[in-house]
């Protein structure tokens, strides 16, 4: 005959579970919800403060007054401002970002079509930035105040100072026009592949691999390598500078001196101990860099005719298409929120003290 636990035992187990498992999850999701609510409130206010009449944007400035008043009521603009925000919040939570005036498509469908192009471009640029920027920053820290350090710092200064559109045009002239190493700056694929490739993820490199079409993969890579490399120049410059700073701070710590006294090899000290601790603050830097590339690649997308989200938002803004502008803004803001929260969670992986 089994004996059931006492009431006090159940309470103790419940509070132990709540403290260790449930409370962090509740805290995480409540932070996500509150931040997202603030983002929606901000975009709603921006939409109301913009000097653009949403009704005229839909029906045109030559429509009769009767049609204007009818559309005004259908859009709910005659409701109190609080009710308008509640309706707006409800639509967004259902995935309804409105209809684009410029494309006549649902904004959600447009974003699903354009965002993967930016995601693919920014992800590749961030990977290049991590693979090159972090080792370069480590080298600069180890060779502090030597010619290698000065070269890395000069490289980073150019990366932060040179306008991206100027670098893009220079890259086109050198690598496309003269060397013919890359494809023409005309989108993501050549016409011969564009309409034959099945769209699974809308990320061309991934879709070509899924389809097993290696000729299309080579063509897609030839299109993306130059804009991704130019975008990665910014991330390489920033990550190398931040890695150098974090490494210099770690190399001054007492545990590094202790390791050297114990005879630990310099390579182990630098790459395992110092860099291992420097990864903790680097996580946030990498996350913010990635988010910046996702929302700040508009000039690169324009120069290379890249059909990404930044170009979509810019074209929508020029056409006074506020549904598309606000929808794109929500997506960009959500990306920042998720990447920041993800970096907070990753702290626990790289730094057990955060637990």
UniProtKB/TrEMBL annotation:
State the annotated membrane topology for this chain: Multi-pass membrane protein
Q: Does the keyword Transmembrane helix apply?
A: yes
Q: PROSITE patterns under this entry?
A: ABC_TM1
Q: Which InterPro entries match?
A: BPD_transp_1_N, MetI-like, MetI-like_sf
The membrane spanning regions, by residue number, are 25-46, 121-142, 154-176, 220-239, 279-304, 324-347
Question: Which SUPFAM superfamilies does the UniProt entry name for this protein?
Answer: MetI-like
Where is the protein situated, by its record's location annotation? Cell membrane
Tell me which residues make up the ABC transmembrane type-1 domain. 115-347
Whether Magnesium counts among this entry's keywords is no
Alphabetically sorted, this entry's keywords are:
Cell membrane, Membrane, Transmembrane, Transmembrane helix, Transport
Family as reported in the entry's similarity comment: Belongs to the binding-protein-dependent transport system permease family.
Name of the molecule in the record = ABC transporter permease
Highest classification ranks of the organism = Bacteria, Pseudomonadati, Pseudomonadota, Gammaproteobacteria, Oceanospirillales
């Amino acid at each position: 005959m089994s004996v059931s636990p006492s009431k006090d035992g159940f309470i103790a187990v419940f509070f132990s579970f709540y403290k260790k498992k449930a409370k962090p999850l509740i805290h995480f999701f409540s932070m996500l919800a509150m931040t997202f609510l603030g983002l929606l409130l901000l975009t709603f206010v921006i939409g109301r403060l913009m000097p653009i009449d949403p009704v005229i944007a839909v029906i045109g400035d030559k429509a009769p007054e009767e049609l204007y008043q009818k559309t005004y009521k259908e859009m709910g603009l005659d409701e109190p401002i609080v009710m308008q925000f509640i309706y707006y919040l409800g639509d967004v939570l259902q995935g309804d970002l409105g209809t684009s005036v410029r494309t006549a498509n649902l904004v959600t469908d447009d974003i699903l079509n354009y965002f993967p192009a930016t995601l693919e471009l920014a992800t590749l640029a961030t990977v290049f930035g991590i693979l090159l920027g972090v080792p370069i920053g480590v080298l600069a820290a180890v060779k502090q105040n030597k010619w290698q350090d000065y070269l890395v710092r000069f490289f980073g200064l150019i990366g932060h100072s040179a306008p991206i559109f100027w670098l893009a045009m220079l890259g086109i002239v050198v690598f496309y026009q003269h060397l013919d190493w890359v494809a023409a700056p005309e989108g993501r694929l050549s016409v011969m592949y564009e309409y034959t490739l099945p769209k699974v993820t809308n990320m061309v490199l991934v879709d070509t691999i899924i389809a097993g079409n290696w000729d299309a993969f080579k063509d897609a890579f030839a299109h993306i390598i130059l804009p991704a490399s130019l975008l990665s120049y910014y991330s390489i410059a920033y990550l190398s500078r931040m890695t150098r700073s974090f490494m210099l701070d770690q190399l001054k710590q007492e545990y590094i001196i202790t390791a050297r006294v114990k005879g630990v090899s310099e390579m182990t000290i630098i790459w395992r101990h110092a860099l291992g601790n420097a990864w903790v603050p680097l996580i946030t830097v990498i996350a913010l860099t990635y988010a910046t590339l996702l929302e700040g690649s508009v000039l690169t997308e324009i120069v290379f005719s890249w059909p990404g989200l930044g170009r979509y938002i810019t074209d929508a803004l020029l056409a006074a298409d506020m549904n598309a502008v606000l929808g794109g803004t929500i997506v960009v803001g959500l990306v920042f929120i998720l990447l920041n929260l993800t970096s907070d969670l990753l702290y626990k992986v790289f730094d057990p003290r955060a637990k």
